Amino acid sequence: MGKSVNIFWFRRDLRLEDNRGLCEALGAGRPVLPIFIFDSEILDGLPADDPRVTFLHDRLQELRSRMQENQGSSLAIYHGKPLEIFKELASDWDVGQVFTNRDYEPYARDRDEQVGQWLSEQGIEFHTFKDQVIFEKDEVVKDDGDPYVVYTPYMKKWKQVFRDTPLATFDSAGQLGNLIAHSRLPNPDLADFGFERSAIPVPDYDMGGKLIDAYEDNRNYPAREGTSRLGPHLRFGTISIRQALGKALESSNETFWNELIWREFFMQILWHFPRTVHEAFRKEYDRIAWRNDESEFEKWREGRTGFALVDAGMRQLNASGYMHNRVRMLTASFLCKHLLIDWRWGEAYFAEKLLDYEMASNVGNWQWAAGSGVDAAPYFRIFNPMTQVDKFDKDKSYIREWIPEYGTEDYPEKMVDHKAARERCLKTYKAALD
């Protein structure tokens, strides 16, 4: 049996500053052994050059270096199934308590229940904390205790509760001296667990005042640099939600603040309705007779539909792991309504490609586009891909950036007629919902 330690388990919180669970671990008495597990249950099936895995590995090396330079400590990095890793840890160390921050996705909840049960059987305490959201679970609900399923009243209640709740911060960085002094901890390279370095970088976020002040004016125009690129950093916790919200509150414009609340709205929906990962929130929408034409899905994925804004978005996604939010709505609507392809196909493709993939928001927004979710667009609201160009990329700067052959004979013809596809969609949806 090794040294007596407590463990902090990094997951979606890859930072030393303002980290709730890390702060609690560092103040709990025993020296803290920090760990990260590349979960094989999550990694299996991902492409070998997945940019998110490269980003995670690079970020962990940064944290490891900081710990080594400042405290003579380090970070233990593992690959495998979490329960098996904890069995290994419990045999190598005298573990008193395990600390981590909560995750709300269905797989994570099941994993944590399994790990927590085993630890309890070994006499090891397992503590989880709220860190990736301001409010979780039932903290913002209707007066009768039911969850909100429409954004605007949720947002208003969220702000009301927030005004009565001090915005806490956690001085985890100031307690790093309580990390265990140990430099020889496992640190596998990407190749050791079957991955290779991706050529797609995760860009830094921009939370500057000018961007936030002008966010409402710029956010709908994909050719402008008007978005924060904050998504991957909130997803993996390289910035805390409290720091991000603090920046948003410095502006008199509440639009950016409202976008952060959208994220929490979808997270509480996923918590209360985990079935929506695979089922329509509005169950009658699972009666839709999707066409699910694989050749048409392939054209959509590759950006060869003949609808320029749709194609530009898909090509941006494939090349960079990012797509502008306005264009995400259009590409999703086009797949579900023009092509009558199941929203779950599109959701899975975005999950594979997006650097900022977060299950709650991705599922929530895809169901919104299909009309089947909470706070959904009515099924008869069908974006016109041509007028969307006129509104949001009138000079076609974004289109030409991503479709160099646009306007030449090399660019494909439109794969469907908008009017005919719209009428087919309305007929199909009506037949399912009446």
Automatic annotation (TrEMBL):
From its record, what is one biological process in GO terms?
response to stress
Q: Its Gene Ontology molecular function terms?
A: deoxyribodipyrimidine photo-lyase activity; DNA binding; FAD binding
What residues does the record give for site: Electron transfer via tryptophanyl radical? W290, W343, W366
This one is known as Deoxyribodipyrimidine photolyase-class I
Cross-referenced PANTHER family, in alphabetical order? Answer: CRYPTOCHROME, CRYPTOCHROME CIRCADIAN CLOCK 5 ISOFORM X1
Phylogenetic lineage: Bacteria, Pseudomonadati, Bacteroidota, Flavobacteriia, Flavobacteriales
User: Where is each Photolyase/cryptochrome alpha/beta domain found?
Assistant: 4-134
Q: What are the record keywords, sorted?
A: Chromophore, FAD, Flavoprotein, Lyase
